[in-house]
Amino acid sequence: MRVFVTGATGFVGSGVVRQLIGAGHEVTGLARSDASAAALAAAGASVLRGDLTDLESLAAGAQASDGVVHCGFIHDFTNFATSVAVDKRAIEAMGAALAGTDRPLLVTSGTAGLAPGRQATEEDAPDPSVYGQSPRLSEQTALALAEEGVRALVVRLPPSVHGDGDHGFVPTLIHIARDKGVSGYVEDGGNFWPAVHRDDAARVYVLALEKGEAGRRYHAVDDEGIPFRDIAAIIAKKLDMPLVSVPREKAADHFGWMGIFAQFDAPASSRLTRERLGWQPTGPGLVEDMERGTYFAA
C-alpha cells in the first residue's frame, strides 16, 4: 500500500513510518525542512515537501496514496485555537482528495477528557467542552467524511506516549520540577493518566490502516491509568527533590499551560481495540520506562 503520512518525523509519526515500511508498505512523508526530508530519506521513505498549512501539498499527497495517516499537529497549547483550525483544514483538504475512493484516512485524537469520572472506551464520543472554547475537532471532521466516500478512522493516544526521544508531557513535567525545585501533583494526585510506549502506539496505526473498519475509534492504550502522584513521585526520586501537593487553585501557577492536563482524570480502556485489531502491546509501561529510560539523562 502507498501511504501518505503527516507528522512523519515527529515522535509518534517516525515510529509509524518505521513500522509501515517494516510491514512492506511504501511511505511518503510530509517534510517542512531539509532536516525532516533527510530523516525521512534515511528511514526509507519518499519525501513530499510542505507543512500542515500547505493544503495543495496535503491534497496531492493524499490523492497519490492508497491511504493517509495523519499524525501531524501543531502542539502549541498557548495558541490552541489556531492549532485546531489548522488541523481541521488539513483533514478537510486530504478528505476532499480521497472523496469517493473508499480509501482510509486515519486521524489522531486523544483519550483525555472523554469520560470524566469513569474509564473511557472506544465507543465514547468526544466531549468538546473539555477543551473549553477551542475543542480539538479531528474526530468529528474525519468521521463526517464518511458521507463523501472516505474510510475515516480515528486513533486515540493517551496523555503519555513514552519512550526514548519523548518530548511530550512527561519531559515537560520534569522541566517544571527542575524549575520549581519540587515535583508536584494536584490535590491528592489520585487522578489517572493512561500511557503507551511509542512503538506500541505506532503498531495500532498500522493495524488500523490494514484492517480497521470505517467509522471506528481505536485506543492506543497500554497502562489504563497510572495515578498522577506516582508519576510525580518518580520525578521527585530521580531529581532528589520534595514531592508536594499543589492546591487546585494554584495548579495554573505551578504547572503553567500544563495545569489543565495535570488535573485530567482520564483512565481509558483498549479492550475493544485489542479484540478488533489483534493488538498486544509489548513495550515497557510508563513507570518502567521512567525508571530505566533516558528521561533524566540531561
How would you describe this protein?
- This protein has two domains: 2-160 and 195-222, NAD(P)-binding Rossmann-like Domain (Rossmann fold, 3-Layer(aba) Sandwich), CATH 3.40.50.720; 161-194 and 224-267 and 284-292, UDP-galactose 4-epimerase, domain 1 (Alpha-Beta Complex), CATH 3.90.25.
- Helix content is 39%, strand content 19%.
- With 298 residues, the chain is of the alpha/beta class.
- The chain has helices at 11-22, 34-43, 55-63, 80-98, 138-143, 169-180, 198-211, 228-239, 251-255, 259-262, 271-277, 286-292; strands at residues 2-6, 26-31, 46-49, 67-70, 104-110, 151-157, 160-162, 183-186, 192-197, 217-219, 223-227, 243-246.
- It is built from twelve helices and twelve strands.
- Helix 2 (34-43) links the parallel strand 2 and strand 3 (46-49).
- Helix 6 (169-180) crosses helix 8.
- It is globular and about 55 Å long.
Structure annotation, total helices:
12
Structural class: alpha/beta
Count of individual domains: 2
Reading the helices and strands in chain order gives: EHEHEHEHEHEEHEEHEEHEHHHH
Distance linking N and C termini: 40 Å
The whole-number mean of residue pLDDT values reads 94
- CATH fold assignment of the largest domain: Rossmann fold
CATH class of the largest domain: Alpha Beta
Q: Strand fraction band?
A: 15-25%
> Architecture of the largest domain, according to CATH?
3-Layer(aba) Sandwich
Q: Stretches where pLDDT falls below 50 for ≥5 residues?
A: none
Query: How many individual β-strands?
Result: 12
Superfamily (CATH H level) name of the largest domain = NAD(P)-binding Rossmann-like Domain
Arrangement of strands in the largest sheet: 3-2-1-4-5-6-10
Rg over alpha carbons: 19 Å
* Main sheet makeup: 7 strands, parallel
Helix content: 25-40%
